[in-house]
Amino acid sequence: MRIMTGLAAVLAAVLPAMVFAQGLQTDQPAVGADGPSTDSIKSDWNDFLHYTMIGRFDLAQGFGQRLLESKPDPLVLLDLSEENLRGYQLLLKMQEDSDLLRETATEILKVIEEGRYLRRTDSKIIVEEIARLNTTLRGKIAAQERLKNAGEYAIPYLLAVLGDEGRREEFANITQTLPMIGRPAIRPLAASLQMNQTAVKLKVVEALGKIGYFQSLPYLKYAAEKDESSELRAEATAAIQRIDSTTGQLPAAELFFQLAEKYYNKDESVAPSSAFEFANLWFWDSQGQTLSRLEVSQDYFYELMAMRCCEWALKADPGLGKAIGLWLASYFRAESHNIAMPEYFGEGHAAAMTYAVTAGPEYLMSALERALKDKDAYVALQAVEALAVNAGSKSLLTRVGMGMPLADALRFEDRKVRYSAAIALGLAGPSEPFMGSDAIIVNLTEALLKKGADELGEDLAEAYSVRAMETLQDLAIRGNPVVDLSAALEAMIETTGSESESMQISAGRVLSHLSSPQAQRAIAQTAMDEQKTMTVRLSFFSSLADSAKRNANLLLSDQIEVLYQMIQSRQTDPKIREAAAGAYGALNLPSQRVKDLILDQARS
Question: Which residues of 317-354 are buried (b: 16+ CB within 10 A; e: fewer)?
Fold first, then answer.
């Protein structure tokens, strides 16, 4: 059983703060109707820490489990952890270092965090602390500290007081306290700027100006540009000057876009509290004229906030196209976490791909360019797939800045992105060569041959192979001047041996467009292969005829001889014989053979 390095030092610091059990007790602690008593929780907590520190992890495990099974009051356990900070640190170390106690330590820490959340969000406590603001100076200072600890959760209650004319004597203390809450107050305060009460909004604007931070600027600038009240517009302008007189000169739409980028890039300045696994989205309820919040996973909090900021940017300036690109990238990345979208999306809300294919190439290129820069394979792939649906050759080669995102995607590190980009460009049929266009056929060929199946998975590799073949066939039929199909010759010949009849047939059709003796001979060999199915052989004889019409005869003499014998023989299946004859005729061979064939069947 391993004891951690430095445990003795921790033990020396913690021992005086604890009352240790003299021996392992087997009786269950007293539990009242509403749960275990405070003394019982304290006893199990102390015993757990004691046996942990002396290395008796087996005994510690028993007390830890007993503590959890008693369903202790989270607030009591939080108080105990704060009274004994070294013991709390030990608990954190056990969570990280002890195989035996890791699970128990993790569960105890969850209860403590629940207590921290309850204390911070308890409406009864918040309301009591707001009332204490109007008591003694000492009471006011203590209340402000408690409200600061409550953070964003205190804002709805503080604003409710400011909206109540019957509590005007409290306004001064509320106004003083609002900015003291600091950065955690910004999101709910910013959301509340949609309220109708101008007098309260003035106090909110004033508080945001005092709190500072770029995060407030877009909302203040929007108020300065759009609000009906000239007094509030002036107050918002003053608040902007107080925060950043230079950046604040930008229009609200641009400021919202910059804030959206901060969220998208998970900038520390907009990070939610790390104390919990969730974060809060704040909304203004226009009917109830009050704030409401929604807990969402921190996994996609940043993306959801980026989307909301983009939406505000478009409200401020509907022509700010780059906000659409960032919104799409944010939505795609939010979906990448594979968790349900939050309830405010509403029933029947369309998926990101629906918006993407509707948006058009300009905005998708912006999202793709961002994803390539960030090396975000998921967003890049979704953007490319959307482009494959709705973009033509000219729009696919649109430049964003100095680069062409889809061309750059052909060399992206993620194989799926490369393959999808090649398919998108191939189906669009580029009319002129561009830097990197040679990578189209390289990726299509690799996809066709299922290169990277070990990383893609067999099903996805098969899907890409089929899509690549469809693209190659489309390029062949159109006679695309940019994509050199001859580079896929070996891959096509290899595909004639595929287990899939449809892939074999498609390979034959592509080969028929290649002006290569090797291509035509491969078609003939497959057509004359008696191991192939009737369907495949008939198709390949048709492809051989097409090849001959385009390229004349490129077959070897022995292949011509075999083909002639098939036509001559009465044992050959009539359908095969007819198809072979059609191919033979298309080869436009000297008339001697045809004369022989006629005389062979003649009867005098």
Answer: beebebbbbbbbbbbbbbbbeeeebbeeeeeeeeebbe
Residue 89: alpha-carbon gap to chain centroid: 34
The closest of 121, 49, 125 to 80, measured between CA atoms, is 49
For residue range 488-527, what is the model confidence (pLDDT) as tens digits?
999 999 999 999 999 999 999 999 999 999 999 999 999 9
- Helix, strand, coil in percent for the chain, rounding step 5: 70, 5, 25
Range of the domain at 586: 484-604
Over residues 220-278, the pLDDT tens digits come to 999 999 999 999 999 999 999 999 988 878 999 999 999 999 999 999 999 998 877 89
User: What is Dmax (Cα atoms) for the chain?
Assistant: 132
Domain end, chosen from 96, 121, 146, is at: 121
d(CA 527, CA 542): 9
Residue 97's Cβ-count burial label (10 Å; 0-12, 13-18, 19+) is middle
Using one digit for the tens of pLDDT, what is the confidence trace for 184-225?
Answer: 999 999 999 999 999 999 999 999 999 999 999 999 999 999
Residues 327 and 366 sit within 8 Å (Cβ to Cβ): no
Alpha-carbon distances, residue 88 vs 42, 79, 92, 471, 539 (angstroms) = 13, 11, 6, 61, 76
The dihedrals phi and psi of 28, each to the nearest 5 degrees, come to -75, 145
Based on the number of CB atoms within 10 Å of its own CB, is 590 exposed (0-12), middle (13-18) or buried (19 or more)?
Answer: exposed
- Is residue 14 situated within a structural domain? yes
CA pair distance 386, 426, nearest whole angstrom: 14
Give the amino acid at 368: L
pTM above 0.90, yes or no: no
User: From the CB of residue 469, how many other CB atoms can be counted at a distance below 10 Å?
Assistant: 26
List of long-range contacts for 555-558, beta carbons under 8 Å, 24+ apart: 555/517, 555/520, 555/521, 555/524, 555/587, 556/521
What is the average pLDDT across 293-316? 96
Q: Domains in the chain: how many in total?
A: 2
Query: In this structure, are residues 216 and 192 in contact, taking their beta carbons and an 8 Å threshold?
Result: no
Query: Among 121, 154, 177, which residue terminates a domain?
Result: 121
- Please check whether residue 455 lies inside any domain of the structure: no
Q: What is the pLDDT of residues 403-455, one digit of tens each?
A: 689 899 999 999 999 999 999 999 888 888 888 899 999 999 999 999 999 99
Residue 306 lies in a domain: no
CB 579 within 8 A of CB 543: no
Helices (H) and strands (E) in the chain, counts: 33, 4
Is 57 part of a structural domain of the chain? Answer: yes
Q: What is the CATH number of the domain that holds 538?
A: 1.25.40
